[in-house]
Amino acid sequence: MNKNDEVEYCNLELRFDRMHIQNLIKDLIQEGYSLYWSESDSLFVISVRTGRKLIKLRFQRIKDGYKLVGDYMIRDARLSEWMEKLIGDMRGHAVVKRFRDRQIIIENILFGEVIRLVEISGYQQKVLYQKGPLLSDQELTKMFYSTLGEERVRDRRMEVDEELDRLSDALARGDKQQVRLSKEKLMFLRKELMKLEW
Q: Out of the domains of life, which is the source (predicted)?
């Protein structure tokens, strides 16, 4: 990334627990950033100084942890790289806009993976990459705000854990019929998870 490039992060959907946030603070300090943080009942804010600019990363408190909220315009190349690594590592969702000269590159990221890459030059718009079938803007927006996929993945993983327990018990008892049934169910759940996480 060129030092003059600006990168805007929009529609961020990244979830954290308190330990993740403490690790983020450590990582930023190790990267050499000057920062401070504050906390209220509803928000945890990390203020990062980049040159003369102060970027405030806002983490909203939710029932099972924190969620990074807001849109961020970042001009610092290292901080942009850090933010993109964070989105990938946390399997988060985001719309990333890169502003260069008279051109904008827009990445739609879902579960930490780029699913669409669009280049805008003047009035022209060109899709550089599209994972899977072409989706309309409404479908993409619906997908970004939907938690249904994440919930289904979580449910299937719980079913896998339960079935592994059942298989373990059946193996200990020598119950060949239950072993066969559990293996069949695990194969089915594995295929389901692969489809959902693709």
A: Bacteria
